[in-house]
Write a structure and sequence with these properties.
166 residues; alpha+beta; two-stranded parallel ribbon; two-stranded antiparallel ribbon; 6 helices; disordered C terminus
């Protein structure tokens, strides 16, 4: 499903993927992360994942916590900065007790994702796909609408991706 949505030339400005990692792991998760990172070049992508192989490709990370208060579920979202982001990836890898090995692996995942981005940005296969005149027109209308109505534009601009960890 993710592959189909990301392959389209539609004028959607923001994609939201919830539990995009269901039933996958390892190399497949990394491939999904790469695909989402490519899509995030031109669109805003919000992705909820529990896999560090996907989260490592994010521009930004957010921590989402849910708790029960007086019979209601309360959700808090907090942006993770710098080292907090790597620490969260390490927690995703290690579980309850974060080890030095998990921290090293998290740093390696982020480094590999950053290297891939640098290489991918310069490869011919990463060039934007040709789109039909109809799709180009729809994209132009969508951009004009976003500029004319800034209140409707998603916060953070294109490329922002949120990650959740409960």
């Amino acid at each position: 499903a993710v592959k189909g949505v990301l392959a389209t030339g539609d004028p959607v400005v923001t994609y939201v993927f919830d539990e995009v990692d269901a039933g996958v792991g390892g190399a497949v998760a990394e491939a999904i992360g790469r695909r989402l990172a490519r899509t995030a070049r031109d669109r805003q992508v919000l992705c909820i994942t529990h896999l560090p192989q996907i989260a490592a490709f994010a521009d930004h990370h957010f921590h989402v916590e849910k708790e029960q208060r007086e019979g209601r579920t309360v959700t808090r979202v907090r942006r993770l900065e710098g080292e907090e982001s790597r620490e969260e990836l390490a927690r995703m890898l290690a579980g309850a007790e974060v080890t030095a090995t998990a921290r090293k692996h998290a740093a390696d995942l982020v480094s590999a994702a950053q290297s891939w981005r640098s290489e991918d940005a310069t490869t011919p296969s990463a060039a934007p796909r040709a789109t039909s005149k109809r799709n180009q027109s729809a994209k132009a209308k969508s951009k004009a609408k976003s500029k004319a109505s800034p209140a409707r534009k998603a916060p953070g601009g294109k490329g922002t991706r949120a990650r959740t960890r409960s």
